[in-house]
Design a protein that fits this description.
By secondary structure, the protein is of the alpha/beta class. The protein contains 10 helices and 15 strands. The chain has 3 domains: about 120 residues, 3-Layer(bba) Sandwich (FAD/NAD(P)-binding domain); about 100 residues, D-Amino Acid Oxidase, Chain A, domain 2, CATH 3.30.9; about 70 residues, no CATH class. Helix 1 runs parallel beside helix 5 and helix 6 packs across helix 10. It is globular. The relative contact order is 0.16.
Length: about 350
């Protein structure tokens, strides 16, 4: 079996992003890289969205970018602008194509379907596969989406709906999410935040989507062009770093626990690893700032114990400067901005969650 300098376990978003940054920074000129990925071909399977709080290399992979959004709760709608930090969505199919085409040009990069095909004893390994224990008390963000095309103009293509809470909550946290790509085409997702056992018993995603389209969008004339679904753990995985074995992506703590946002964190981590690859065992692991872990832990405790209050809490969060909230949700806020957001939260409930840590 062949030896490699670097091995990436998992050729999804984080694995490919790291390989891309290594190649981009010319770190594989005299090094070899093996990527272990079982899938036979890369096709569009996801939509990754985020606030553009920093530049990235995938503007050419965007489905669309918006500088307006809204949040809805029963009888209220908040319309907001995000011109400084537009909301962007990446088409995973375009992302895969861009990276795979580039990596294929590097003769030092190899793809394998199984780890059994290579020798891992002398390599630095980057693992993107999360180790998740089936704990019934953990919260997940789970969702299903339809990209639909309608016969008539249904959507405002310039404004996305970040959260529409005007729907059946079932004593959980439930909202719809709409990314309008044109006046006749949009991705609509039903999203739940709940515990593991409730993921399979609590929801019929397709019925929810069809009912929302019929009753809220008031149309039966549409075609489903694409479907996606997934579940994001809103807790840290069991993966641990060790010498010559480094976790990346969700396995490496790059998912923001209160929001599920991961894509830009992956890009930051990949850039950091590529920059420090020659001394990677001697530098600190790239992490989301500790304050966000602390604040997210409290926030999720409140969410778990008080799901009936979360629509108002999310809505009121955006009473603060929109730029400040976006930066907070994207791990880029300062202490002054953090404080402004904290002050909008119901004090007694959050204090109880803090004291119960």
């Amino acid at each position: 079996m062949k030896d490699f300098d670097y091995i990436i376990l998992g050729g999804g978003c984080s694995g490919l992003s790291l390989a891309y940054h290594l190649d981009l920074q010319n770190k594989l000129k005299n090094k070899t890289l093996a990527i272990i990925e079982p899938r036979g071909e890369y096709v569009r399977d996801k939509t990754w969205s985020f606030w553009k709080v920093k530049s990235h290399y995938f503007e050419d992979c965007l489905k669309k970018s918006w500088d307006k959004f809204n949040i809805k709760i029963p009888n209220k709608t908040k319309d907001l602008e995000c011109k400084n930090y537009p909301y962007q969505s990446i088409d995973s199919g375009l992302f895969y194509k861009k990276i795979i085409n580039r990596l294929k040009e590097n003769k030092n990069i190899f793809f394998f379907k199984s780890q059994k095909e290579i020798n891992t004893n002398k390599s630095i390994i980057f693992n993107s596969v999360p180790e998740i224990e089936k704990n019934q008390d953990q919260l997940w963000q789970h969702f299903c989406g339809y990209e639909i095309e309608t016969e008539n103009d249904i959507f405002d293509e310039n404004t996305l709906t970040l959260m529409d809470f005007d729907c059946d909550q079932q004593n959980k946290v439930h909202f719809f999410y709409i990314l309008p790509f044109s006046n006749k085409k949009a991705l609509i997702e039903t999203t739940w935040i709940s515990k593991l056992e409730e993921r399979s018993t609590n929801n019929n995603y397709e019925n929810e989507l069809e009912e929302y389209i019929r009753l809220k969008l008031k149309t039966n004339n549409y075609k489903v062009k694409f479907k996606e679904n997934g579940a994001i753990p809103l807790f840290l995985t069991n993966n641990k770093n060790k010498k010559n074995y480094i976790n990346i992506g969700t396995a490496g703590g790059m998912t923001r626990l209160s929001t599920g946002y991961t894509f830009l964190n992956i890009q930051k981590q990949s850039e950091y690893i590529a920059k420090n690859i020659d001394i990677i065992n001697d530098v600190k692991a790239f992490k989301i700032a500790q304050k966000y872990k602390f604040l997210d832990e409290i926030f999720l405790k409140v969410l778990d114990k008080n799901p009936d209050l979360m629509t108002e809490i999310f809505y009121n969060m955006f009473q603060v400067s929109t730029n400040s909230v976006i930066k907070f949700l994207s791990n880029e806020s300062n202490m002054f901005e953090d404080t402004k957001i904290i002050m909008k939260m119901p004090k007694l409930i959050f204090l109880r969650a803090l004291l119960s840590r």
